[in-house]
Amino acid sequence: MPAPLDRIRVGSAPDSWGVWFPDDPRQVPWDRFLDEVAEAGYAWIELGPYGYLPTDPARLGDEVSRRGLRVSAGTVFTGLHRGPAVWDGTWEQVARVAALTQAMGAGHLVVIPSFWRDDKTAELLEPPELTREQWSHLTRGMERLGHRVRESYGLDIVVHPHADTHLDTEEHVERFLDSTDPGLVRLCLDTGHYAYCGGDSVKLIETYGERIGYLHLKQVDPEILAEVRAQAIPFGPAVRRGVMCEPPSGVPDLAPVLTAAQNLGVDLFAIVEQDMYPCPPDKPLPIAVRTRRFLRSCGA
């Protein structure tokens, strides 16, 4: 039997049920997601896109607690590299999500940079590389956000490197970490997105361990990823091809990632996310059950 990973708190998210949007007829209803994530054996969930789950704190708290669930984090997308002009609009969005996250007793806000190309059409929205000034806007903006979110809502931000954003590759992630205050900004390491962009999750944890504040557990199908790279396919169509796959069939191997995280000696959430929007409504639950069983076999 593997050593118990007693510092790792495993959960899942609406993303693993094919949920990318607040309201979409191709997604499972929110109450079915809550029923099934509990049935699969998870104790923790994320809020997903704001508006998918009920946004009234009293109602959401009741729906979550009566299923034996707790909330680990909320999520926001930001475009802080665009500079001070976007701050007010960004804060309005962040405050709404942070207030609900705080009301649910969670301690984290997952912050994802905005896409540089459309995740459906591949239309170029911005250059894929930031200028020096934009890097400064991004890093200073995230520090400002981390300070404000903690001051106003008592939450820690964890910034999520993501495919088709300016925070993706090992080079970009290390530059970001080296340029930001560890006391204000930590990382949500998504093992699938980092592998998708060529990064080594175990190496990152072992090198920047004090900056890892949260984990998303995800795997990539290496054969499909090779096609995606060769054909420069954007993230949305890549997901529809099945680039994010069910553990343990892809990369990275999650057992060493979890062991490296455990060795940090701090409590960490490890939230399962298997991107598969859109998907048949009966597909997620069996995968979630098998994935939970696999993670238990790793000690989590």
Furnish the topology, listing elements before pairings.
Elements: E1 8-12, H1 30-39, E2 44-46, H2 57-65, E3 70-78, H3 87-103, E4 108-113, H4 132-153, E5 156-159, H5 170-178, E6 186-190, H6 191-196, H7 201-207, E7 212-217, E8 219-220, H8 222-230, H9 235-240, E9 244-245, H10 254-262, E10 268-272, H11 284-297
Parallel strand pairs: 1-2, 1-10, 2-3, 3-4, 4-5, 5-6, 6-7, 7-10
Antiparallel strand pairs: 8-9
Described by strand count, sense and barrel closure, the largest sheet is: 8 strands, parallel, barrel
Structural class: alpha/beta
Provide the low-confidence segments as ranges: none
In N-to-C order, the SSE pattern is EHEHEHEHEHEHHEEHHEHEH
Number of domains: 1
Strand order of the largest sheet: 1-2-3-4-5-6-7-10
Distance between the termini: 12 Å
CATH architecture: Alpha-Beta Barrel
CATH superfamily: Divalent-metal-dependent TIM barrel enzymes
| Fraction of residues in helix | 25-40%
CATH class division: Alpha Beta
Instruction: From the 3D structure, determine the CATH topology.
Output: TIM Barrel
**Mean pLDDT over the residues:** 97
**Structure annotation, total helices:** 11
Tell me the number of strands.
10
Protein name: 2-keto-myo-inositol dehydratase
InterPro entries: IolE/XylAMocC-like, Xyl_isomerase-like_sf, Xyl_isomerase-like_TIM-brl
Pfam families: AP_endonuc_2
Organism: Streptomyces cyaneogriseus subsp. noncyanogenus
Could you walk me through the main structural features you see in this protein, from its secondary elements to its overall organization?
There is one protein chain. With 300 residues, the protein is of the alpha/beta class. The strands form two sheets. It has an eight-stranded parallel barrel with strand order 1-2-3-4-5-6-7-10, surrounded by four helices. Helices cover 39% and strands 16% of the residues. The protein has one domain: TIM Barrel (Alpha-Beta Barrel). The chain is globular and about 50 Å long. α5 links the parallel β5 and β6. It comes from Streptomyces cyaneogriseus subsp. noncyanogenus. InterPro entries: IolE/XylAMocC-like, Xyl_isomerase-like_sf, Xyl_isomerase-like_TIM-brl. Pfam families: AP_endonuc_2 (PF01261).
